[in-house]
Amino acid sequence: ATRPYTIHPHGVFYEKDSEGSLYPDGSSGPLKADDSVPPGGSHIYNWTIPEGHAPTDADPACLTWIYHSHVDAPRDIATGLIGPLITCKRGALDGNSPPQRQDVDHDFFLLFSVVDENLSWHLNENIATYCSDPASVDKEDETFQESNRMHAINGFVFGNLPELNMCAQKRVAWHLFGMGNEIDVHTAFFHGQMLTTRGHHTDVANIFPATFVTAEMVPWEPGTWLISCQVNSHFRVSQISFSRRAPAELGALTGKCDMKPFKMRHSKRRCIWRKIGILESWGQ
């Protein structure tokens, strides 16, 4: 790193020396070491998850939270210092290193965000590196500022997120989260699929700033499917991605798919349609 950063968590418990958040809190000495870790420095953050704060019986086995740097939170996050933090029920993970979930076959993590690179710590560096005439750049120009707002999924725009590969008929967990401001209202739409989240079946998950959604899915149809934000202004600038389901009998791109292909049962129904003429009379 070229400047001081921290790690501030959501969804876990910590003492003051592991908060990782810089603000005028009146603390001093060892309690300030977590507030700003300089380049080349180190700090050990200790977090706990009490039984009373773990996922409940009504929750999925693992819940979605986040961590991010909090020296200057808006600028740190706009620079990309944010990621998912997952808390799981006791026994949900196996004994491997790193541990893997036993209740699902695939885990995916998606951050829906309008990344404002005007706030990035690297803005001046990027101007100097990539502009043919850096001195001519007016950082206060509205058009320039708008060009730096990237409607992204995991930082990728225009469908360039690497494919999210999974097996058809396998259990998939989605960890969705958002940060930002009033323009970061997103609707994560899984085309052709059905999610279960908060006890409801849906194909859309609503994501607001600082909200975290855990959803589960069993995708049936092999093929390439679209994931998009359906907010008009976001979709127009291609806040989209793609997920790819390998047929169960062929093997997944990310692992072996050994489940037999699922066959839908169809029934025939005879429907009789009768055309009825309707005359509407409006008052004179």
What is the number of independent domains? 2
Shape from CA axes? globular
The arrangement of helices and strands along the chain is EEEEHEEHHEEEEEEEEEHE
CATH-level-2 architecture of the largest domain = Sandwich
Largest sheet, strands/sense/barrel:
6 strands, mixed
Q: Fill in the CATH topology of the largest domain.
A: Immunoglobulin-like
Distance between the termini: 78 Å
Give the helix tally. Answer: 4
* Overall number of strands: 16
* CATH-assigned homologous superfamily of the largest domain: Cupredoxins -  blue copper proteins
Query: Percentage of helical residues?
Result: under 10%
Report the average pLDDT across residues: 85
In terms of per-residue confidence, which ranges show pLDDT below 50 for 5 or more consecutive residues? Answer: 248-255, 259-268, 273-284
- Strand content is 25-35%
Secondary structure class reads: mainly beta
CATH top-level class of the largest domain: Mainly Beta
Strand order of the largest sheet: 7-6-9-14-11-12
Q: What is Rg?
A: 24 Å
Family: Belongs to the multicopper oxidase family.
GO molecular function: ferroxidase activity; metal ion binding
Keywords: Disulfide bond, Glycoprotein, Ion transport, Membrane, Metal-binding, Oxidoreductase, Repeat, Signal, Transmembrane, Transmembrane helix, Transport
Protein name: ferroxidase
